[in-house]
Amino acid sequence: MDWKTLAAQLFPQGHDIVEKDCFLSGSASVDGQTVAVIGTAEHTPIGVEIALAQAQAVLKTVREHPGRPIVILVDTQGQRLRRRDEMLGINSYMAHLGKCIDLARRAGHKVIGLVYDQALSGGFITSGLMADACYALPDAAIRVMALPAMARITKVPEEKLVELAKSNPVFAPGAENYLRMGGVEAIWRGDLAAQLAQALAAGEPVDRRSETGLARGGRRLAHPVVQAVVAGTDARAP
Amino acid sequence: MNSYLEASARQRIAALFDAGSFEEFVPPSQRVVSPHLGQLGAPVSFDDGVIVGRATLHGMPVFAAAQEGGFMGGAVGEVHGAKLVGMLKRAIGEQAQAVILLLESGGVRLHEANAGLIAVSEVMRAVLDVRAAGIPVVVLIGGSNGCFGGMGIVARCANAVVMSEEGRLGMSGPEVIETANGVEEFDSRDRALVWRTTGGKHRYLLGDCQKIVADDIVAFRNAALEMAQACRKQPVELTLQALEAEQRMLAHRLQAYGEQPDALQIWHSMGIPDAAAVPMLDTDEFNRLAAQHRQGAA
Asked: Phi first, then psi: what are they for A52, rounded to 5°?
């Protein structure tokens, strides 16, 4: 889905979001409340410039509009794979964006992420996955890597990965798999505006994704291992 | 000299903290292994490639983790990530004086890709929870696999990064970039180019690393203590002021060096007259030179 169509459905009460070089920013009205909107469009790779632009928008919101909720619209093919970005320290730019979102949360801003098209690895980890809760549209392509490339690197035949992906959400792309593992809170179908309003009302600052992943059966070991380490018990105990 | 680069994660832990002080959580005897690797016919490790626990460092009670580069490049899977998150949560509960992370990782473990990606984001948030609790987080990087992918981001969520010249810190490794965009973009076999793009000296000069040490575990040990103590003298948690300063630093970097073709030109722009000699300097010589030119650390 393109961002303008999305914005019209998400913010029927109006918005002033603008796009500049695939960077989205602006504000919108949700249930009569003003929210800040940041994001990316057209599956853009996340390079140093767009990471910094998003961070700037988050900091501006924290400084000028204390408490204003932040909605992050995610559509990216992942981090930009260029030597220049590495030389300039792209990991620092992405960490900076993640830290700015975390600061906003701790300062009392609700932060909601929405994957409306693509979300890949590095571009996702410092945007939607840093929100209080991340949601996705049904057709969203969320992944670390496509199965053919994964087959090459892991040296496991692609047919076997496809077969395993049917029973184990850990391998295959897709919003449903991230839902089962707790990385996506819910998949939005139908009235997007109403679901956004609900998400903003429900958002909480505690990270419960490993519990959710266990409850949904997609990540059965993460939460028990966290608990075993915290409690100093044997992780194999029932 | 006791090389950090050549040591295993367990050897690093043993030499870095006070002798006999390290207590491991969920040790290999519990055999908590990846639930996903077996299905792919890949070997498992009884610690899933990471050691977590508590120790003392020159008497200071700290929590710590060390990633083992020898097991799948230190990559993060479901169990590996959960051990890190559990240790970070427990550090808050037990009010550790500092958390020391010995990172060596290629990032997300592709064999359990989706779980690894979510796990790394949980580690990021847990690191920032530790900082919010007033506990400084210090990252050490000096292993042969470097610190890349999501763990390269985690490293820069810490209060301080200590590197050796041999250490590398970045997002995408040179092989990944070469595969995606060709050898003209990044020749992964050009070792000098690789090191001046992501190695310790360049990171220190840019301000992404707060201390550079020789490839020696004792040097890392002393630097870890020094940084933990220094971090406790300023706000440990994220603040708007500190992030606005970081925003300015990163914007300045882009403006000043964004058009430079190579780190050599960046160093020259910083005012280093003989930039080509930088890779050859030993740690002491380099530190003397860098003191006059390096960018402010955030």
From this structure: -70, -35
**What is the predicted ipTM?**
0.98
What digits encode the pLDDT tens for the residues A33-54? 999 999 999 999 999 999 999 9
Instruction: Indicate the domain borders of chain B.
Output: 9-169+209-237
Alpha helices in chain A (DSSP H): 3-10, 48-64, 83-88, 90-106, 121-125, 147-154, 158-167, 175-180, 192-202, 209-215, 222-231
pTM tops 0.90, yes or no: yes
The pair of three-digit structure tokens given for residue B279, joined into one six-digit string = 């890779």
Q: How far is A196 from chain B (nearest CA, A)?
A: 22
Residues 6 or more apart whose CB falls under 8 angstroms from that of A158 comprise: A147, A148, A151
A92 at B interface, C-beta within 8 A = yes
Contact B250 A92 (CB under 8 A): yes
Interface of A with B in 134-173 (CB under 8 A): 142-145, 150, 153-154, 156, 160-161, 164, 168-172
Fold of B9-169+209-237: 2-enoyl-CoA Hydratase; Chain A, domain 1 (3.90.226)
